[in-house]
Amino acid sequence: MSTPESDAERERRASDILGEALGTAARRAGLDPAESASTHKVVWSAMGGWRGILESVLPSLAFVVLFTIAPKPLILSLGVSVGLAAVFTIIRLLQKSPPSAALGGLIAAVAAAALALWTGRGADNFVPGLITNAAYGTVILVSALIGWSLIGLAVGFLMGEGTTWRQDRRKRRAYFWLGIAWAALFFARLAVQLPLYLSGDVTALGTLKLIMGLPLFAPLIAVTWLVVRALHPRVPEDEKRAEA
User: Fold this and answer.
1) Where in the sequence is the domain holding 59, given as residue range(s)?
2) CB–CB of 173/137 below 8 Å?
């Protein structure tokens, strides 16, 4: 007769599943502390290289510029923005990128444009981004506060140590503060952009969204990578052979 699964076992199993998902996503983005890579290379990979930067910047930039020059008809600026997102998506699909990764940005762009067209407010094109910042910031903050940092779960999976990092005070403290830093980034975006959304200042909102995007994301990725590598120093190959 099987015994009921304890709360601790369920918690551990859920953390393993979440850690695997986060770790896989980090590895695809080039953020694997088990690999030897320079900080510059890691940050560049996390941003997606030139293609990732263009995908992140051009659709929003086109929308802001066209809306500022000619706010009416709204469909013009939205159409160009979604069209650019569609072009990038097609290129990804032709290059055999995973469909979910290729279509995710396009679906978000279409949903945002549809909402803006439905309400007739250009500022509503930024609603999904505001919701995303609020959701990410909340989840990361809560996970850090309860001692199950999402960063720790991802690194634990990548380094093959599971959740044992929670017994290491140094690692647990480091992942806590990294979680706080990432949550602060998302909440800072929300704090700056939400008032502009409520006031309907599309030009300022779009401009600050771009400024608070990759320019803030890149340094925090670099800091995160340096902290994780300090916690998990890479063993030279000759030492590995000697131990074997």
Assistant:
1) 13-238
2) no
Q: Are 117 and 78 in contact (CB under 8 A)?
A: yes
Q: Are 193 and 212 in contact (CB under 8 A)?
A: yes
pLDDT, one tens digit per residue, over 3-44 is 555 655 665 666 667 667 777 766 666 666 666 667 788 888
List, for residues 189-227, the tens digit of each pLDDT value.
999 999 999 999 999 999 999 999 999 999 999 999 999
Q: Please check whether residue 221 lies inside any domain of the structure.
A: yes
Count of structural domains within the chain: 1
Residue 145 belongs to a domain: yes
Interval 142-184: pLDDT, tens = 999 999 999 999 888 888 888 889 999 999 999 999 999 999 9
Evaluate whether 135 touches 143 at the Cβ level (below 8 Å).
no
Cis peptide before 33 (omega within 30 of 0): no
Neighbours of 12 (CB within 10 A): 13
Which pair of tokens denotes residue 36? 């030897």
In a domain, 5, yes or no: no
Does residue 30 lie within any of the structural domains? Answer: yes
Largest CA distance in the chain: 72
Could you give the CA distance from residue 125 to residue 203 in angstroms, rounded to a whole number? 12
**Torsion angle of the four alpha carbons 61, 219, 86, 124, in this order, in degrees rounded to the nearest 10:** -50
